[in-house]
Each structure stands twice: as structure tokens, then as C-alpha cells.
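re: that complex we talked abt at group meeting.

here r the seqs, copy pasted straight from the sheet so there may be weird spacing, ignore it
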Amino acid sequence: MARPQLTVLQGGRRLTPTAPVGVVKGVGPEYEKRLGRLGIATVRDLLLNLPWRWEPYVRIELLSQLQPGEQATFVGTVKSIRAENSRYKRLKMAKAEIKDAAGATLNVVWFNQSKLAYRYKPGMRIALAGKVVRGYGGSFEMRNPHHDLVSGAPSKVGELMPKYHETAGVASSRIADWVQAALPAADELEDTLPEDVRHRHRLLPIAEAVRQGHQPDSEAGWKEAKRRLAFAELFEFQAAFVLLRRGLEQETATPIPYRQEVIDAFKAGLPFELTNAQRKATWDVFKDLERELPMNRLLNGDVGSGKTAVAAAAAAMAHAAGFQTVVMAPTEILARQHLHKFRDYLEGSFPGLTVELLVSGLPAAERRRVRTAAASGHCALLVGTHALIEEDVELANLGLAVVDEQHRFGVRQRELLRAKGQGRPHFLAMTATPIPRTLALALYGEMAVSVLNELPPGRTPVATQVVEPEGRELAYELVRREVAGGRQAFVICPLVEESEKLQSKAATVEFERLRTEVFPDLSLALVHGKLREKDTVMAGFAAGETQVLVATAVVEVGVDVPNATVMLIEGANRFGLAQLHQFRGRVGRSAHQSYCLLLADEPTEEAMTRLRLVEKEHDGFRLAEADMRMRGVGELMGARQHGLTDRGMEALAHPELLSEAREEAESVLAADPDLEEHPALREAVSRRLELAAIS
Ligand code: ADP
Ligand code: MG
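got the structure back, here u go
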């Protein structure tokens, strides 16, 4: 009988790709949990999680040789080290002073790693690798550097060091150690890429790619490893889409015939003319609705491009054919806003088209009334939140299901919504922010896409300006001036990633400061994720009762408040470009000139370059693309929930890789529809589909 090799036995449990990551030496239950937050559950996940970059180091022993902004390895002696809590963000950290031979000191801080204060002691020689920055008062500083004790033996530091993505409490250097321990299992990884595909595209075998990915022999080896793993990832996604599409093609929907008089009435009832992009998207939708296949379309649009009107046109057509429409939005505020917009767009021209709202905040009697109206077919358009799928809402004759800001819902929630009727309704999803074309193809490859890349005419671009910390007073001046002119302002608090609770706390502190010290003469309101009366506060702001709304980033500020003309974003450097663009889209919704002020609390060169892009660029699609290139991280539009890694994201910069992966996936599935000959691929695809279903 074959026995497992000794090298792959760890703590009595076998180190195999499918084993939970906890079998890796050094990963205890706590770390297992934290790794889970990075999407690493199994040994395979750990192995496939390549460093996102490498830091080249120059070893330096005298601080006078260091240049701010440079990557360096510095070897010195610990002078002092201690654990500390930061007041501002309530972070635990370790702070150290490291001396060089000439007596100069380097200040080091490790966020979220206060334990290091007990690992290193004064007098120890340590090597630190990372970026040197100029701290307050001109001193040299390193933040979160790699670190290692310098003993007699040659140190790893000084070579190329892998940098893995970190999460609260898991430093990159630890992940590097675990990867080393897990590498023997690489030989047992099953390849999801068929051999002929691999050969055709000159891709490394999986085990080799994993080894080169973590311990490359050369830069070329590293690049090949990345390309190969990215290809496999995109290939698996595309194979999953083929299966999803095939499933949809086996379903039937009731066709909703196109009627010219409906669209004429719809246009006549609108307070504006449709833009060309809206017209084109509406046309795409009408063509889909006429088919017996259920529509499965994504409206991919810039912020403020008018996606709601397109959905309303579809609802009108469905209504004319005797079908109901249901629209699900991620928050109550958005659902209410939709209610008003749909009524505004539709009720004038279509007297029988009743629009109703269902959210959990309604009184019981009202909920009952709405449910009855839906079940009897009297309500033609039902707008709501999760309540739509959580409560036992039934629709007499559902023809069209619409989901707004679709990335905030999982596949399962979308499925539950679709299941509200008897048959299979047509389905329309809308994005919150524009998604670059390649990303849309990589994430939503099973859907047809309409792009809304045009803003309604007459909007003046929001004047956007990056403000350095010294300029804060001027920013407040602008708020005062606009409020004095009868307008309103948003102030977005810096992002605190650790938790919503901390974020809400920090926002409360900032709110108090603004209320008492900065704008004592204005009326301010605060809204954050932990606040129960969110909707009341938002409604008060929308009604003009408060002048300045202080909000956290986690809170949905997606309300339409045309009278707001200032968007002031604190800690703008911590947000992604797409998110900044989304915030900016909250103002500039009227004829008044609007302003967006980006305050950087850490004005590094890199941050400023990114922010200046928002200053110049007003096209959301282009900003999203730049964000994808610059951050390379799956922060965009739920890419992470989908399981798209940085590697996959990075690969999207080479669209030909995506189309090749797509073609190969299609031809593999054409030849082997149930993937009987490709068990590893079959498994990978079902993992991806499951992941999508629970996200
Ligand atoms: P989003 O695509 O961000 O969801 P909305 O549908 O909320 O955008 O529309 C943004 C604003 O633009 C709304 O106030 C809407 O009434 C208005 N709007 C939509 N289409 C047009 C248009 N063609 N002309 C003028 N205003 C429009
Ligand atoms: Mg919208």
C-alpha cells in the first residue's frame, strides 16, 4: 500500500491541497480564521495565493545613506520597542527605535502587530526591509517593514522578498513562512488546464508555476508563473459562464412583445429626453424581452447616467403586456428613491401602472396591503429591499425582475427574486459604478451587457480639487460659502477598514469636532452604519432640514439630493478611484456648480498621483480602469466576492489572455459538455459557482 511521504505529514494530518489550511505548520485555529478573511481556506488556496509583488532591497547600515521613498534593507540595533494603542484609529501597534552604528535612529511602526514588541528586545540586531518615509519632524520612518533577527547565519533579508496581501493580524512574512511549509503539497495539485491547452499557450505545469510563483529562479519565471495561474483562473471563470449560460438557455420565459405606442407614451411622460446611450440600452432590453429565452442583461453605467429610466421603460413594456415588475435595491433609502423615480417616470403616462414599496420598516398593515396588491396583480411595479425575498411576497404575474447595484447581492438572492413568479421572469441587473469592459466580461460573462457611458446633457462637471492637509480651512470655507448660498454639503469620514464599529466611532468623534469647533453655526447631521435612524437622517438631509451631512463610507449615500453642491472627502487617499467617483456623483445633480474636495491625510507621492487623476478625469469607466491598473486589487465591484484574485485582475490588462481563455473554455465544454474527461476543471468550476452563490 502506498504511504504518504514523510515530508507531507504535518502534525498528524496530511498536507494535501484539499486539506484545510490549518494543517500547515504554524497555522493555528486563530490564524486559520484570519486567513479565511483573505479567502484562503485550504492548502491549495494558500499555494495559489502568489505574492502580489517583490521588494528589491539594498542593504544599508547607515541611516545617512537612506533616501526617503526608497525601498531598502536597514540593519541596526533595537534601542527601544513598545506596544501602543493609537487613539485616533484604535489600532494596536508596535513602535520601535532602531539605532545605526553612527547613533542615528530610525522610527519603525508596525500596525496591528503589537506582539512584535515582545519578540524583539533592546540590544538585538535586526534587519528591516521596506519603504523609507520621511516622518514628522524630518525623521526617517518605516511602516510595516519586513523584519528579521540578524544572527550569524546569512539572513533572507537582502534578497528579493515576497510581499503577500495582509489582513488584520496576518503579516506577509508569516504567510511567506507558511507557504514554504506548504510547498511540498504543490506536486499533488491537480491541473484544471487540459494539457493541450497548456501546450498551445506555452503555460507551465501547475506545480512548477506554484514553485516559480513563490520562489522564482528569475524574473521571467515569476512572470510565467503569474501568467499561467491567471490564465487558469480566467479559464475556470469562463467555463463556469458557459455552464451558466447553457442552464439559462434551457429555460423559457414568456415573451413581452414590443409596442411602439408604449415607448411613445413613456417618452412623452418623461421630464427629459433619453440620451443616446439610454435609447440604445432600452432597445437592447426590448429585443431581449421579445424572446422566449429569459433576458439576462447587465446595465453597466456611469454614476448618474440614468439607469433607472431604462428599467422604467422595461417595466412599462412589461405592464403593457400584462406582467408585473419587481425591483430590488440594496438599501431602504435607495428603494424609496426608486419608488419616487418610477412613479415620476411612469404614473403620468400609464394610469393603471401602480408602483408600490415593500421594505421591512413599514407598518404591518401597510405591508399586508402591499403584499395583497402584489399577489392580486393590482400592483404593477413592486420596489423594495431584501424584504422582497425574505418575506413571503408573491406576485400574480411576474414578467421582469430588476436588481439595482447588483454587486451587493449574491447569486442566491438574485435567484430568490427571480423565483417570485410562476414562470421564469426576464432579468435585468444594474451596476452601481461603471465596470471596465474586461472586468465585466471576466465577472459577468454569463450576461449580455449594455453600456451607459454618457451623462445626460446640461450637467456641469463637478469641480474637483485635491486639498493637502494645510488647505483644510479653505475647504471648510467653501462649505460655509455654499451653505450661505442655500446649498448643502456632504462630509465623508476617512475609511477605517478594521470594522464598521470603529468606523462609526471615528465618525462620531469627527462629527462632534465639526459640530462644535468648525461649523458651530450650521446644522449638521451624522449618519453611520451603526445608526438605527439612518433613513430619518437621510430624509432630513434630502428635505433640506440639515445643511451638512457627515457620513461614513460604509453608509449608502446614494440618495439624490440635487441641492447638495459640496462633497468633501476626508482621507481621500484611502479610497479607490471608483469609489471617489461614486461619491462625487452625489453632487452635481442640479444646475448649480458643484465641488468635490479630496483631502489627503497621507499625501504621499503615490496617493497624490492617484487623486490628481480624479481631478482631471470625469469619465467613470476610465477611472475604473485606472483604478484596476494602479491598485491591481480586487476592490472593484465585488471582484473579491467572486473569487477573482489580483492575479486575475492584473491579467485583465491583457485582454487577449481573457479572450483566449474564453475560447479555450468554450471549446473544451463543446467537446466534453459535462466535463467528464476533466474532473479537476469540473471541481474548480463548481467551487466557483458555489462561491458566487454564497457571496
Ligand atoms: P444612475 O444611473 O446613477 O442610477 P439615475 O437613474 O438615478 O442614475 O439618474 C440620475 C439623475 O439623472 C436622476 O435625477 C434622473 O432623473 C436624471 N436623468 C436620467 N436620465 C436623464 C436624461 N436623459 N436627461 C436628464 N436627466 C436625466
Ligand atoms: Mg442608480
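couple things i noticed - Residues 652 and 681 are 21 Å apart (CA to CA). The pocket of adenosine-5'-diphosphate (ligand 1) is lined by residues 272-275, 278, 301, 303-309, 456, 560, 589 (CB under 6 Å).
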